[in-house]
UniProtKB/TrEMBL annotation:
Pfam families: Amidohydro_2
Cellular-component GO terms for this entry: cytoplasm
Amino-acid biosynthesis keyword on record: no
Amidohydrolase-related domain residues: 17-289
Keyword Lyase attributed: yes
Protein name, per record: Amidohydrolase-related domain-containing protein
Organism: Psilocybe cubensis
C-alpha cells in the first residue's frame, strides 16, 4: 500500500491524488476559528462538508483526496487530548467508508508529548480505521521539533510500520508574524516552520535512523529547496556529524508536495533539487480557492 500510495500521488493526466486536503469536523464555526493568524478561508468552503470537497475535486479533476486535520500541536498529556484525536480519526474514517473511491486519510495523533497515547492511536488508526499514514506538525508545545529525541519511540513505531508521515508547518507567530494585513502567519511563517522541521530531521539523522518512514513535506517543503545548501555547509561547520554531501542527500529523501507552490519557477527549482518521483500533488483545500498553478 505504501508504494502504491506514493506512486499514485505523482502528477498524472490519467489519475490524480491530492495528498494535501484538509477536512473539518461539524463543530467548526463558519467564521475563521483562529483569526489571529491572519488567514481567510474562501467563504464558500466553510462550513466544510465532504460534498464541498467532492465538488471542488470534480472541478479540478482530482480522483482521490487524502484527508488530514491540522495537527494537535498544543495541549497537554491526558485523556481529553487523546479523545480529540480519536474523535477526528473516527470521523475521517467514516467519511472514507462513505466515499471509499474518493477519500483516504492521514491519522491525527494526540499532543506528541503523550508518547504512549500516540503509540496507541497509531495502532488504532492504521490497524482498525485503515489510515494510510499520520500527519504531524512541524513542532509541538513551546517549540520542540517533531523529531526531538523525546519522540523517538513514536518514530521507531512509524519506522516499523513503514509509515507515510505528512509534515505540515505550524501556525506559529514569528518576530514579525503579520508584517502586513495581507501577509498572515500561513504565508510568512508556515513555510519556514516546514523548513526548520525538515532541517531538524536531517541534522539529527532521522532519515538514516528511521529509513522506512516516508516523510512528505507540505508546500514543496516551504523554503527547504532554497536553504538546504545553506544547512549543508553551515550545519557541518557548526558540528553536525554528517558531511555536506550527506546532508543534501538526506534532504533529497523527502517527498515534496505542490500545495500553494505549483508555480513554474518553484517547480523548476525543486525539479532540479530532487528526483521527479518525489514531487507529489497537493492543493491545501479548503484553505485556498480552486485556482491552482500546475504545470
Amino acid at each position: 500500500m505504501l508504494g502504491s500510495l506514493l506512486t499514485s500521488v505523482q502528477p498524472s493526466q490519467n489519475f490524480c491524488v491530492d495528498i494535501h486536503h484538509h477536512y473539518f469536523t461539524p463543530d467548526l464555526k463558519k467564521d475563521n476559528p483562529n483569526p489571529s493568524i491572519g488567514w481567510k478561508t474562501p467563504a464558500e468552503n466553510l462550513p466544510w462538508s465532504p460534498e464541498i470537497s467532492l465538488q471542488a475535486m470534480d472541478k479540478m479533476k482530482i480522483n482521490v483526496s487524502i484527508l488530514s486535520f491540522p495537527s494537535l500541536s498544543t495541549g497537554s498529556v491526558g485523556e481529553e487530548n487523546r479523545s480529540m484525536a480519536r474523535t477526528k480519526n473516527e470521523y475521517a474514517s467514516e467519511l472514507c467508508r462513505e466515499y471509499p473511491e474518493r477519500f483516504m486519510f492521514f491519522a491525527t495523533l494526540p499532543f506528541l508529548d503523550d508518547v504512549e497515547g500516540c503509540l496507541e492511536e497509531i495502532a488504532y488508526a492504521i490497524d482498525q480505521l485503515n489510515a494510510c499514514g499520520v500527519s504531524l506538525s512541524s513542532c509541538y508545545g513551546e517549540g520542540q521539533s517533531a523529531s526531538d529525541k523525546r519522540y523517538d519511540a513514536v518514530w521507531e513505531e512509524l519506522n516499523r510500520r513503514q509509515a507515510v508521515v505528512f509534515v505540515h508547518g505550524s501556525q506559529i507567530p514569528g518576530s514579525t508574524p503579520c508584517p502586513h494585513s495581507s501577509l498572515g502567519v500561513p504565508i510568512t511563517e508556515v513555510p519556514n516552520e516546514t523548513f526548520k522541521a525538515a532541517s531538524h530531521l536531517v541534522v539529527t539523522g532521522h532519515p538514516r535512523k528511521f529509513p522506512n518512514v516516508k516523510v512528505v513535506l507540505a508546500h514543496l517543503g516551504g523554503s527547504t529547496p532554497m536553504l538546504a545548501a545553506r544547512v549543508a555547509v553551515l550545519s557541518n561547520h557548526m558540528g553536525c556529524e554528517l558531511t555536506p554531501e550527506e546532508i543534501l542527500e538526506d534532504f533529497k529523501k523527502f517527498y515534496y508536495e505542490t500545495a500553494l507552490s505549483g508555480y513554474e519557477g518553484s517547480l523548476a527549482a525543486v525539479d532540479k533539487f530532487i528526483p521527479q518521483d518525489h514531487i507529489l500533488f497537493g492543493t491545501d483545500f479548503p484553505g485556498n480557492g480552486q485556482n491552482i498553478y500546475v504545470i
